[in-house]
Amino acid sequence: PKAGEISLAHNGVLFLDEVTEFPRSVLETLRQPLEDKKISITRADYRVEMPANMILIIASNPCPCGNLFENRCSCSMTQIQRYQHKVSGPLLDRIDLYLEIKKLKKEELSSFEGGESSKSIRERVKLARERQFKRFGSYKVNGNMTPKDIKNYCELDDKSRKILIDSIDLFGLSGRS
């Protein structure tokens, strides 16, 4: 069999734009590769495993019309909820970071305020990768830490442990998140 998008994204990024437009059955096939870092393809006469260690980035509008935060949304609450629930909870549990990006105003688009340069960001990422290499002794990233690694490298003091436990209750976090 030929490698699909998930295997082609191995050691890279898989970006799915307008993720709520994908059939739910397709999205659900991402769960196991995200968990196992590999994809298994089984047919009647063979079974193949391919690597699938990737960063998954998904994007979608907040509602069907895309204007939920612009005070001109034409969607009902039922439509918004149905739209936002197209991606299952178990798949969302496997996503590490959520960002809400609002549309920029015309003035914000046309103004340029100097930010950090790509070169500077690249240097910070390089230094972080070097620290991780020294820490783990292999080219492993934090997202691939095992429970044993977390216990060894992420010791929490009492105050931090309380914040974590309170956050689990407050935000309804699962063990996976």
UniProtKB/TrEMBL annotation:
<comment type="pathway">
    <text>Porphyrin-containing compound metabolism; chlorophyll biosynthesis.</text>
</comment>
<dbReference type="InterPro" id="IPR027417">
    <property type="entry name" value="P-loop_NTPase"/>
</dbReference>
<dbReference type="GO" id="GO:0005524">
    <property type="term" value="F:ATP binding"/>
</dbReference>
<feature type="domain" description="Magnesium chelatase ChlI-like catalytic">
    <location>
        <begin position="1"/>
        <end position="108"/>
    </location>
</feature>
<protein>
    <submittedName>
        <fullName>Magnesium chelatase</fullName>
    </submittedName>
</protein>
<dbReference type="InterPro" id="IPR025158">
    <property type="entry name" value="Mg_chelat-rel_C"/>
</dbReference>
<dbReference type="InterPro" id="IPR000523">
    <property type="entry name" value="Mg_chelatse_chII-like_cat_dom"/>
</dbReference>
<dbReference type="Pfam" id="PF01078">
    <property type="entry name" value="Mg_chelatase"/>
</dbReference>
<dbReference type="InterPro" id="IPR045006">
    <property type="entry name" value="CHLI-like"/>
</dbReference>
<feature type="domain" description="Mg chelatase-related protein C-terminal">
    <location>
        <begin position="115"/>
        <end position="177"/>
    </location>
</feature>
<dbReference type="Pfam" id="PF13335">
    <property type="entry name" value="Mg_chelatase_C"/>
</dbReference>
